[in-house]
Amino acid sequence: MSLATSPAPGRVVVAITGATGAVYGQRLLQRLKAAGRETHLVVSPAGVLNAHHELGLDRKALEALAHTAYNPADVGAAIASGSFPVESMVVAPCSMKTLASIAHGLSDNLISRAADVTLKERRRLVLLARETPYNLAHLRNMTAVTEMGGIVFPPLPAFYHRPATLDDVVDDSVERVLALLGVTEAQPKAWAGL
């Protein structure tokens, strides 16, 4: 791998799509900032609608949480090229439409293009897939992304640490994702055994 395409330590692409669970994207941006990471954000139009409905946030409020923000239609943005070094990418939450686009390499917007670049450069891609129940197309798309090296991470709550609030549930998933991204400051609650 050439120096120009080597991952930039601490640079993470975050995408927020139209699935429910905008809080995961918001919390990831907050935690990545606290951990000193440089975040590059893309929010789909449906992601903005969900963030407004679920969190009362508009596009500007979401973009203020990131170092750099991009228009999802800007397929010429820096993160659309493998020559722009990043460490990893996370889509939180990831709609089934976005999952399908990534699984089939459509690159029809900046989110799916950046994910395609992440996979082709063999960088870490984590998708917080939000849907239930799954149909066969969902499962096949998850398999395809997994076979390409991506990680499908439905944010399912763990109850062994006895979460007391919804924030506890969200934070548990976020810390696990941060650990998957290689963020050393991540604090996932580990199972200590009985």
Automatic annotation (TrEMBL):
Flavin prenyltransferase that catalyzes the synthesis of the prenylated FMN cofactor (prenyl-FMN) for 4-hydroxy-3-polyprenylbenzoic acid decarboxylase UbiD. The prenyltransferase is metal-independent and links a dimethylallyl moiety from dimethylallyl monophosphate (DMAP) to the flavin N5 and C6 atoms of FMN. The keyword Methyltransferase does not apply. InterPro entries: Flavin_trans-like (IPR036551), Flavoprotein (IPR003382), UbiX-like (IPR004507). It is an enzyme of class 2 (transferase). Residues 11-172 form the Flavoprotein domain. The lineage of its organism: Bacteria, Pseudomonadati, Pseudomonadota, Betaproteobacteria, Burkholderiales. Its EC number is 2.5.1.129. It catalyses: dimethylallyl phosphate + FMNH2 = prenylated FMNH2 + phosphate. GO terms for molecular function: flavin prenyltransferase activity. FMN binds at G18, A19, T20, S44, S95, M96, K97, T98, R130. This is Flavin prenyltransferase UbiX. NCBIfam families: PRK06029.1, ubiX_pad. Keywords: Flavoprotein, FMN, Prenyltransferase, Transferase. SUPFAM superfamilies: Homo-oligomeric flavin-containing Cys decarboxylases, HFCD. It comes from the Bacteria. Belongs to the UbiX/PAD1 family. Dimethylallyl phosphate binds at Y160, R176.
